[in-house]
Amino acid sequence: MAKKQFAIIGLGRFGSSVAKYLSEMGYEVLAIDDDSDRVQDVSNIVTHAVSADSTDEEAMRALGIRNFDVVVVAIGQDIQASILTTLILKDLGVPQIIVKAQTELHGKVLNKIGADKVVFPERDMGLRVAHHLISPNILEHIELSSNYSIVEMKLPSAMFDKSLKQLDVRAKYECNVLAVKRKGEMNISFPPDEPLKEGDVIVIVGLNENLTKLEQAYA
Ligand code: ADP
């Protein structure tokens, strides 16, 4: 199967890091910005880097933007340009459009006009940092839906030397331990009778409210 081709529009902090990572992973990336200095900054890293205004439909057509599998619109500050660009990409028939939103309202408009995925990097990172401040044992939090999450939790001291059977988080908190990470090794079938040790990380899935109860019970 041919590798996916990506175009990134807007080479600020977010767009340029998406472009760099995809290139490092061996993907073909077209990077676009109307600021030629920004284009210059990534020109050695990505496959093609061009200076163009993404609100200019003809310019986008000339770049063959609709031939890319995924286009990421990473224009943050200029909300009007972000919306216009998304509309143009939609009209040109880009198969998958991912757009960075600055505010909730901006995100709503993007969803309405047909963005396939809207991301809120600042908001999400803010929530993560805040969550980590409140629950320092939580290393990673993955939202599965609005109600369910997977969390990676540093083993709290109250769980040291207890086995999964003894802890029985399934009966007590209706959460399931998916895996135990010990010394960087992930074990997805950790023996239920083996004691957990300081330094272990447990990966748990459950309803958000139950995960919070469990976190608080062992904090
Ligand atoms: P970040 O917060 O990720 O740094 P910015 O909003 O600061 O994002 O950066 C957005 C980038 O998008 C800037 O480099 C800017 O030049 C570029 N940009 C803004 N409007 C357009 C446009 N119409 N066409 C192409 N690039 C644009």
> In which range does the helix fraction lie?
25-40%
Spatial separation of the terminal alpha carbons: 48 Å
Question: Could you give me the name of the CATH homologous superfamily of the largest domain?
Answer: NAD(P)-binding Rossmann-like Domain
What do the pLDDT scores average to? 95
CATH topology of the largest domain: Rossmann fold
Please tell me the CATH architecture of the largest domain by its name: 3-Layer(aba) Sandwich
Uncertain regions spanning at least 5 consecutive residues: none
The radius of gyration is 22 Å
Order of helices and strands: EHEHEHEHEHEHEEHHEEEH
Number of helices: 9
Strand content is 25-35%
Silhouette: elongated
- Main pleated sheet: 6 strands, parallel
Pfam families: TrkA_C, TrkA_N
Organism: Cohnella lubricantis
Domain RCK C-terminal: 137-219
InterPro entries: NAD(P)-bd_dom_sf, RCK_C, RCK_C_sf, RCK_N, Trk_Ktr_HKT_K-transport
Fill in the keyword field for this structure.
RCK_N; alpha/beta; 11 strands; NAD(P)-bd_dom_sf; single chain; Trk_Ktr_HKT_K-transport; five-stranded antiparallel β-sheet; Alpha-Beta Plaits; Rossmann fold; elongated; 219 residues; six-stranded parallel β-sheet; 9 helices; binds adenosine-5'-diphosphate
